[in-house]
Design goal:
By secondary structure, the chain is mostly helical. It is built from three helices and no strands.
């Protein structure tokens, strides 16, 4: 359930590195930003995989 609840937050993190959102915001994230965004996404995917 925690993965489900956290999905909205993860979606926002993912949007920082999404190409369309980059164009809309006029920013290109650096390597550090991408690293911060990718960790929560992987954690949620791993949690979902173990509960399926």
């Amino acid at each position: 359930m925690d993965a489900h609840d956290f999905m909205g937050i993860v979606r926002e993190y993912r949007n920082f590195v999404h190409l369309r959102k980059q164009r809309e915001r006029g920013v290109v994230p650096d390597r550090d930003t991408v690293g911060m965004c990718w960790g929560p996404v992987l954690a949620v995917l791993n949690d979902l995989e173990t509960t399926r």
